[in-house]
Design goal:
alpha/beta; Rossmann fold; 5-stranded mixed beta sheet; 12 strands; binds nicotinamide-adenine-dinucleotide
Length: 417
């Protein structure tokens, strides 16, 4: 299936192949997991504000549905393509399984420049995209959620479009919605909360004795900014952050609450008082204890891995380290909390949201956060324990658990017909 083959998909597939060999995975099951179960490629025409019609390419890929309906975000980004979406869908399968959620993995996206589009254009895009993928989504089939450049407003449009088609309100068709239309308290901050929770849990477990840990965070969107907020509250000095416009640095630490206000007013971190502007790539190589890539994939590669000074990398983003970078980082004894574990907070609370929607019974934020930390902590301990007992790195351990559960379920269910 050459259609999927690009750098990111081949990287996801290579990770699976390596783990399959290590686990002695049954060949038939391994083969069935190497490619998505289903992929839908759609043309999404919309009227732009200037009256012209433009057609965008949209994708929805469902990797595996052995453990339950498929689940995964929708991304609006100019680099969206079939291979990338398929890789992200595969990682969602391992993530859901690792966290013991009754889901398989999916992902979707539309190739566009969302920052150059008006709210009206984005709404028309979201609604028409939903219409085009309507036949394969639903609360029992495939449940989208926000990802890069989509948010709770986008989810409300998707929920409304789907509900209008079926004729009644279906909040459970998407997660990450506003609370007023069936969203969950605590969902908006869930991914960043999970990232910061596991960062401190790892520091406790590793007992490096760092009194005043320092961090650099790449990306200051939903994941990056919330991670910065909670790391700051937990006593970690956040020295550098970046966004698509640039990076800022202050070795003594950035004033995170004020930076968050500044970003709200200015739309970027660049120009924030009390910081020096640095190059985006420099941020990754700063002398800090913790590095949180929370933007895009493939940013730590064989070209810069050797220059990374952080001893702990917490993958807020999906796929920020390439397999070649992993090998270099392991040699340098860098401890990595892999994305399928580190950024799982979003899908964990999405699961809670879906459960609440189905039950029509809503929980307090404290209950949501407590359950989130419990599931994240339990999976972190399982990964750490397996990596220690099997003598493998944490990414391999996380994949072994994630792939192992799906494979066991596949084996029990057998092959239809
Ligand atoms: P977002 O759209 O809210 O923010 C993205 C941020 O990254 C922005 O600050 C943007 O300016 C910045 N950025 C984009 N390209 C960059 C570059 N080349 N260098 C530096 N910064 C850059 O997106 P998000 O929801 O925070 O997602 C970020 C990452 O986390 C993605 O990889 C996404 O797949 C992953 N993720 C998100 C969630 C979630 O719940 N939102 C859950 C799991 C994983």
């Amino acid at each position: 299936m050459q259609e999927y083959h690009n750098e990111t998909f081949l990287m996801a597939q290579q990770q699976l192949d390596e783990v399959a060999e290590l686990m002695n995975l049954e060949t038939g099951i391994h083969e069935r997991l190497r490619y998505p179960r289903k992929a839908l490629l759609v043309s999404v025409p919309i009227k732009l504000d200037n009256g012209q019609t433009r057609v965008f390419s949209g994708y929805r890929v469902q990797h595996d549905q052995t453990l339950g309906p498929t689940k995964g975000g929708i991304r609006f980004h100019h680099e969206v393509n079939l291979g990338e979406v398929a890789a992200l869908a595969m990682w969602m399968t391992w993530k859901c399984s690792l966290l013991n959620l009754p889901y398989g993995g999916a992902k979707g996206g539309v190739c566009c420049f969302p920052e150059e589009m008006s709210v009206g254009e984005q709404e028309r895009l979201a609604r028409r995209y939903t219409t085009e993928i309507l036949s394969i989504i639903g609360p029992e089939k495939d449940i989208p959620a926000p990802d890069m450049y989509t948010n709770e407003r986008t989810m409300a449009w998707i929920m409304d479009t789907y509900s209008n088609f079926v004729g009644y309100a279906v909040p459970g068709v998407v997660t990450g919605k506003p609370v007023n239309v069936g969203g969950s308290l605590g969902r908006g901050e869930a991914t960043g909360r999970g990232v910061s929770y596991l960062t401190t849990r790892a520091l406790e477990k590793l007992q490096w004795g760092i009194e005043h840990p320092t961090a650099a965070i790449q990306g200051f969107g939903n994941v990056g900014s919330v991670t910065a907020k909670y790391l700051d509250q937990q006593g970690v000095t956040v020295c550098a952050v970046s966004d698509v416009h640039g990076a800022i640095y202050n070795p003594k630490g950035l004033d995170i609450p004020n930076l968050m206000k500044y970003v709200k007013d200015n739309g970027t971190i660049v120009g924030f008082d009390g910081s020096e502007k640095i190059d985006g790539s420099q941020l990754l190589e700063l002398p800090v204890d913790i590095l949180v890539p929370a933007a895009v994939a493939n940013v730590i590669t064989e070209k810069n891995a050797d220059k990374i000074q952080a001893k702990l990398i917490v993958e807020g983003a999906n796929g920020p380290c390439t397999p070649e970078a992993d090998r270099i980082l392991l040699k340098k004894d860098v401890f990595i909390i892999p994305g399928i574990l580190a950024n799982a907070g979003g899908v964990v609370v999405s699961y809670f949201e879906w459960v609440q929607d189905i039950q029509h019974l809503f929980w307090k934020e404290e209950e949501v956060t407590e359950k989130l930390y419990y599931l994240m902590g339990r999976s972190f301990d399982e990964v750490y324990h397996l990596s220690q007992t099997k003598g493998v790195d944490t990414r391999t351990a996380a994949m072994m658990i994630g792939v192992g559960r799906v494979a066991a379920a596949k084996s029990l269910r057998g092959l239809y017909p």
